[in-house]
Automatic annotation (TrEMBL):
Pfam families tied to this protein: malic, Malic_M
Domain (Malic enzyme N-terminal): residue spans on this chain: 94-274
GO MF annotation terms: oxidoreductase activity
Protein name as catalogued: NAD-dependent malic enzyme
SMART domains: malic, Malic_M
Highest taxon listed in the record's lineage: Bacteria
PROSITE patterns registered for this protein in UniProt: MALIC_ENZYMES (PS00331)
EC class: oxidoreductase
Keyword annotations: Metal-binding, NAD, Oxidoreductase
Residue span(s) of domain Malic enzyme NAD-binding: 284-537
Enzyme Commission number: 1.1.1.38
Claim: Signal is one of the keywords in the record: no
Length: 574
């Protein structure tokens, strides 16, 4: 059987010369080269390239290095002070000169991450119809889903390995955002590249526009999505089926990250497709893993074990359910029985504790506390549960700001000298508490981590770093490992191993912290990727032959070698 050879993209291919150095063979020439973000070098096109590629006279005379271009862009970035303006600036740069964009991100990652990602990406989602400029990624909607495969064939990239797809039904903690959810798929994939080593020409953001339940969006003349109610039931699943079928045909090597699907849909979609196409749900599994890693490290800091904790998870959406499952798995690994775990992990939704006598959605049922365990309790609302269950760990995934108030935090402090308080909802405005408040109420004793970035807190002469318990420390390495091992499935144990790898990385390099500092995100991802590949091999789901006989050291070197780094490759016409 012969396969027609497809270049990497419709505009160029990457080749190797006799010495093994990579170069770009462009399939277009001249002015158009400056309009393709993956090709454009701006003023970094060399003199020879300008001559050979038909660019002479079209560019400024100066010939720059990538470093010089990064500095120029950084100055322009700094001239803007409003985060959303900075986001728009970076997004425009990404659409103009992608290597420059990633080099800038990599050079100033701590400053850039909150702009391209959480929290500012939340504003970008809300304002996406206003800030939309160039097409990026794939939008499937009720207008074109019947032609999903031809639509996907229009995507000019031929070897996509990583897809982030959202139906926008529960973006961060800000709910249904319709077409705007595309910004989250784009933002997550920027992290896949800068923190997870996946080349930008291997990524595809996808918006599954199945409508919106928000009447205000449907009635807004500026809104760019389809203006009808969300599809539900069979119609909804039929839509997602068509997307998955088209993906398998057009991109048989792709992995899908399901992002920001509301509650039931998150579980339904994950279960329906995880054995059809290698895929995982970032909010259930990625958040679960990152929180497990942080809780393990926080326990280590107070010389206790996870199995000694009593954990309250406030919020029973995809994130809350995933976190509860991950914590239970961690306790199981420490030897607790299901009965013992049930007495140590309590999940609440907006109506209070999930108890097994309450009617509830199917996905919540495994999280419910046996009613008998609450016998004699004063109540089952959050303050009651913290007191009666003697909670030592508070995990906020409710999306409701301020729920971890002084009363709740002090109640946890009465149960343990050092409570773990993690307000994890995103973006910042939805955080369950402010770290400075939590530390003040507990006289600096609480161990705090948040979902969105927060500045360190100074209290009584001590600086408290606030760990960022965001799935950004998991998904890039998880996805990258899955790509490199060419997995046919992403198992729960692969995700759990990602959590333990992140915890181990932090313990080794920053024993005083519970998460690594953000500038080390790509190093941490490398460790996560190695652990994921090893577990995939163990479970027999890795189909990449190359990784099978590698030692740990070889595996690490392999992952590091494959990690995409921003650089301008030389152009050569053939
Ligand atoms: O995007 C983030 O910052 C983390 C996440 O998945 C969410 O909050 O839904
Ligand atoms: Mg999410």
């Amino acid at each position: 059987m012969s396969h027609a050879y497809l270049p990497l993209t419709d505009f160029y291919d990457v080749k190797r010369d006799q010495e093994g150095h990579r170069y770009i063979q462009p399939l277009i020439r001249g002015f158009n080269l400056t309009r393709i973000p993956l090709l454009n070098k701006g003023t970094a096109f060399t003199e020879q390239e300008r001559e050979e590629l038909g660019l002479e006279g079209l560019l400024a005379p100066q010939i720059d290095s990538l470093e010089a271009l990064v500095e120029r862009a950084y100055r322009e970035f700094q001239r803007r002070s409003d985060p959303i303006d900075r986001h728009i600036y970076l997004h425009n740069l990404q659409d103009r000169n992608e290597v420059q964009f990633y080099a800038l991100l990599a050079a100033y990652i701590e400053e850039m991450l909150p702009i391209v990602y959480t929290p500012t990406v939340g504003d970008a989602v809300k304002r996406f119809s206003q800030i939309y400029r160039y097409p990026r990624g794939l939008t499937l909607s009720t207008r074109n889903i019947a032609r999903a495969l031809p639509a996907m064939r229009n995507v000019p990239v031929n070897d996509v390995r990583m897809i982030v797809a959202t139906d926008s039904s529960a973006i961060l903690g800000i709910g249904d955002q319709g077409f705007g959810g595309m910004a989250i798929s784009i933002g997550k994939l920027s992290l896949y590249t800068v923190a997870g080593g996946v080349g930008p020409d291997k990524t595809l953001p996808v918006e599954l526009d199945v409508g919106t339940s928000r009447a205000d969006l449907r009635e807004d003349p500026q809104y760019l999505g389809v203006k009808h109610e969300r599809l539900t039931g069979e119609e909804y699943l039929g839509f997602i089926d068509r997307f998955v079928e088209a993906t398998i045909q057009r991109y048989p090597k792709a992995i899908i990250q399901w992002e920001d699907f509301a509650k039931d849909a998150a579980f339904t979609v994950l279960q329906r497709y995880r054995k059809v196409v290698p895929s995982f749900n970032d909010d259930i599994q990625g958040t679960g893993a990152v929180v497990l890693a942080g809780v393990l490290n926080a326990c280590r800091l107070k010389d206790e074990a996870l199995k000694d904790q009593v954990v309250v998870v406030h919020g029973a959406g995809a994130g809350g359910a995933g976190v509860a499952a991950a914590i239970r798995e961690g306790m199981r690994r420490e030897g607790l029985t299901p009965g013992e775990i049930a007495a140590r992990v309590f999940v609440l939704d907006s109506r209070g504790l999930l108890t097994d006598d309450r009617p509830m959605e199917a996905y919540k049922q495994p999280l419910a506390t046996p009613k008998a365990l609450t016998e004699g309790w004063a109540g089952t609302q959050l303050p009651d549960v913290v007191r009666e269950a003697k909670a030592t760990v508070l995990l906020g995934l409710s999306g409701v700001p301020g729920t971890f108030d002084e009363e709740i935090v002090r109640a946890a402090l009465a149960n343990t000298p050092r409570p773990l308080v993690f307000p994890l909802s995103n973006p910042t405005a939805h955080s369950e508490a402010l770290p400075a408040d939590v530390l003040r109420w507990t006289d600096g004793q609480a161990i705090v981590a948040t979902g969105s970035p927060f500045d360190p807190v100074e209290l009584n002469g001590t600086t408290h770093h606030i760990g960022q318990g965001n799935n950004a420390f998991i998904f890039p390495g998880l996805g990258f490992g899955c790509i490199l091992a060419r997995v046919r499935e992403i198992t729960d144990d692969m995700v759990t191993e990602a959590a333990y790898a992140l915890a181990a990385y932090t313990e080794k390099h920053h024993p005083e912290r519970i998460y690594p500092p953000v500038p080390e995100i790509s190093k941490a991802s490398t460790h996560v990727a190695v652990a994921v590949i090893k577990q995939a091999l163990k479970e027999g789901v890795a189909t990449e032959f190359k990784v099978r006989r590698m030692s740990d050291t070889e595996l690490r070197a392999f992952v590091e070698r494959k990690f995409w780094k921003p650089q301008y490759l030389r152009f050569q016409m053939e």
